[in-house]
Amino acid sequence: MANIVAGIACSHVPAIGVAMDRGVTATPYWESLFRGYEPARAWLAALAPDVGIIVYNDHASAFSQENIPTFLIGVASQFTIADEGFGPRPVPSVQGHPELAWHLAESLILDEFDMTIANAMPVDHGLTIPLSITCGQPPAWPFPVIPLCVNVVQYPPPTGARCFKLGQAIRSAVEAFDRDLRVVIYGTGGMSHQLQGERAGLINREFDNAFLDGMTKNPIALTNITHTEYMREAGSEGVEMVMWHVMRGALDENVREIYRHYHVPASNTSAGLLILENEDAL
Q1: Rounded to an integer, what distance in angstroms lies between the CA atom of residue 145 and that of residue 127?
Q2: Strands across the sheet containing 51-56
Q3: What is the CATH number of the domain that holds 213?
Q4: Whether the model pTM is above 0.90
Q5: How far is CA 35 from CA 8, 178, 189, in A?
């Protein structure tokens, strides 16, 4: 059967992609951030997963304010790179895994999660930057990807508890798939940041690091964080961290923390990276 063997929590700061695309990652501003990504890339290359499930949010690239799915799964064989106003990022198209994606869609819907199904859509920096962070700049991404999009743009977003339960349902669905696949799941977005208003540029290191600790040690407690608390402590965009709960819910109760990297600033935000492995899956 298929198994989820590990999870990655990863920020998707747009400027990280710009730095890679322009070849400035070795400059003084960026060098220490990108040096911290090297162990994660080596770990992922050694793991060599068969499929990645990437939980992310769309930034008005595939969906507008006219249509806002709470949870969406992409089932296509390929996903083009979105033009976010400056042309598509110069990265490979994302190859899908329709067989596993359709299995997940059926299982999750029958498990009473109302998934929207996307037969075609572009993917933006929310998905491509985590791939760039963990895979570098290959001519083709090293594994197919199933995009799973979560609304954290339009109120009300789903709660952390609901996202955690979705992760648990994803794990059950993957384990019911009748092919021998090693799956890695990403939870992306965050960490603390605010892009507008009087608190623009807010970064809360204490909250961020406590959240990183809790992902390993006490994830259930983290699912009780309310939308209001995310906004107060982590800024108006900090609610993106509910997507990390999908990843964590898909893993074992007890996990090994393999690697952690936290850096401030990356553009006008903090950037976090966390790798967790299931104890019995490798």
Answers
A1: 10
A2: 116-118, 71-74, 145-150, 51-56, 182-188, 3-10, 269-278, 255-266
A3: 3.40.830.10
A4: yes
A5: 17, 39, 20
Counting the structural domains of the chain, the total is 1
In the numeric block, the tokens 């979560």 are attached to 150
* Contact yes or no for 273/11 (Cβ under 8 A): yes
Q: What is the pLDDT along the chain (282 residues), one digit of tens a residue?
A: 899 999 999 999 999 999 999 999 999 999 999 999 999 999 999 999 999 999 999 999 999 888 999 999 999 999 999 999 989 999 999 999 999 999 999 999 999 999 999 999 999 999 999 999 999 999 999 999 999 999 999 999 999 999 999 999 999 999 999 999 999 999 999 999 998 899 999 999 999 999 999 999 999 999 999 999 999 999 999 999 999 999 999 999 999 999 999 999 999 899 999 999 998 755
Q: Dihedrals φ, ψ of 240, to 5°?
A: -55, -25
Q: Is 62 helix (H, G, I), strand (E, B) or coil?
A: coil
CA distances from 179 to 151, 174, 194 (A): 30, 9, 42
Q: Catalytic site residues?
A: 125, 193
The range of the structural domain enclosing residue 164 comes to 3-278
